[in-house]
Amino acid sequence: MLASKLETLLNPEENLQGSEVRYITDKVTWQYYERLLTQLQDSLEFRLTYLDGILEVMSPSRNHESIKTRIGDLLLIYFLETNTEYYPTGSMTLRNPEQRGGTEPDESYCIGSNKEIPDLAIEVIITSGGINRLEVYQRLGVREVWFWQNNQFQVYHFRSETIEQFQQTSGYELIKNSELLPSLNLTVLAEFVQHPNPLIAAKSFRQTLNE
């Protein structure tokens, strides 16, 4: 059934506008999830998220991909202009069979040194709902998660020592500024993400950083 659903999502006649499509099913074994990852390999058509037998398959829209790419482009400028040591890990598949969780962020980075698990994961949210992604990232050991939603960033930092205080957000605290990139003004970054011209946005953002 899931295989036929994927074929439907891929069918251009079913998705003429290139809109974001999400499909969620339960009672999926970890073995099936891994087999599906192998079948899809490095496909750009789908993003898979798995948590305790629930599988979410998302086919990103053009708008989704445009935003995530622009965020990545602007962060690259930030890293270069501030001489920040970074290691991009993109949309690499993160999974932990023992914790029964796995996902593919829109963008991800190791900050300071290269690590097996990225320090920062970024998700572009076009349509709400679906699997609790903070729970997935907590099980994977990601320190900080940014959600781009409603034209702004929401930043969550994991608090291992006070995890019980933030049970509703899987141990993550909602904060105003990134603790991984404390000098980055996320309000300013959000303004340039929304700029209608990517080239002008990139040049202006670089100029802002150098002022």
UniProtKB/TrEMBL annotation:
Domain of life per record: Bacteria
Putative restriction endonuclease domain boundaries: 31-188
InterPro entries, sorted: Nuclease_put_TT1808 (IPR012296), Restrct_endonuc-II-like (IPR011335), Uma2 (IPR008538)
Matching PANTHER family: SLR0445 PROTEIN, SLR2084 PROTEIN-RELATED
Protein name, entry field: Putative restriction endonuclease domain-containing protein
